[in-house]
Amino acid sequence: EGRCPQEMKKQIIEQTERFVRTELGEDATGHDWFHVDRVRRNALHICKEEKTGEAFIIEMAALLHDIPDEKLNESIEKGEEKLETYLQTIPLTDHDKKHIKQIIATISYKGGQKTELATIEAKIVQDADRLDAIGAIGIARAFAYGGKKGQPIYAPGIQVRDEMSLEEYRKGKSTSIHHFYEKLLKLQDLLNTKSARVMAESRQQMMEAFLEQFYQEWDGQE
Length: 222
Ligand code: ADP
Ligand code: NI
Prior knowledge:
The chain is an all-alpha fold. The protein has helices at about 5-25, 35-50, 55-65, 75-90, 95-105, 120-130, 135-150, 165-170, 175-180, 185-190, 195-220. The chain folds into 2 domains: about 1-110, HD-domain/PDEase-like (Cyclin A, domain 1, Orthogonal Bundle), CATH 1.10.472; about 135-220, Methane Monooxygenase Hydroxylase, Chain G, domain 1, CATH 1.20.58. Helix 2 packs across helix 6 (about 120-130), helix 3 (about 55-65) crosses helix 5 (about 95-105) and helix 7 crosses helix 11. The structure holds adenosine-5'-diphosphate and nickel (II) ion. Adenosine-5'-diphosphate binds near residues 30, 109, 133 and 141. The site of adenosine-5'-diphosphate (ADP) has 15 residues, from helix 7 and helix 9.
């Protein structure tokens, strides 16, 4: 009571940063604190460029977006519970809490869903998360993830320059190079905002150049 709302928001952000650092600190699959921090900064950049969206909601949703991730929790329910429990500790309106949870629940890729997101804040956070999956950082994250899963860098037996067959996909036969065709190269066309598309331009070129050079080196010299 009586505290300036700006000061209050700053404190909530700082408290949330501490919570997320503690929760994600140990993760090495690409969902580490630095990923979250990049998503937050990219999201705020998009918000500024687009001159729309509530910055505070965007920053909170970006900071918390990986907290309920299935990969970091025993189950989806446990992850959602973790987010819910945290949100109960901070002084936000029910409306804001609901909005933050809704953004987080709807932004994940889930096999290429192309449904319109409900709010501009959700669109911006989703774009920021997707930007961090492409470009030089995206390349690094793909191989870090693949290495942790024990999946090969690349398997020349599998047709990768086009999409893999559904059958191969179901068998879970994949490589990190495959992941570029399954997801990473498609993300640019799925972005919601103009500003994110501008940011994606050089990242897309980086991935294309990388794959080109990768195949050249893979084939080796006579
Ligand atoms: P996020 O939730 O941050 O959007 P994901 O949980 O889908 O991303 O994956 C985390 C990181 O691991 C991303 O950079 C993604 O591209 C990468 N990744 C996910 N699945 C694979 C895979 N099968 N092979 C290689 N990289 C992957
Ligand atoms: Ni993420």
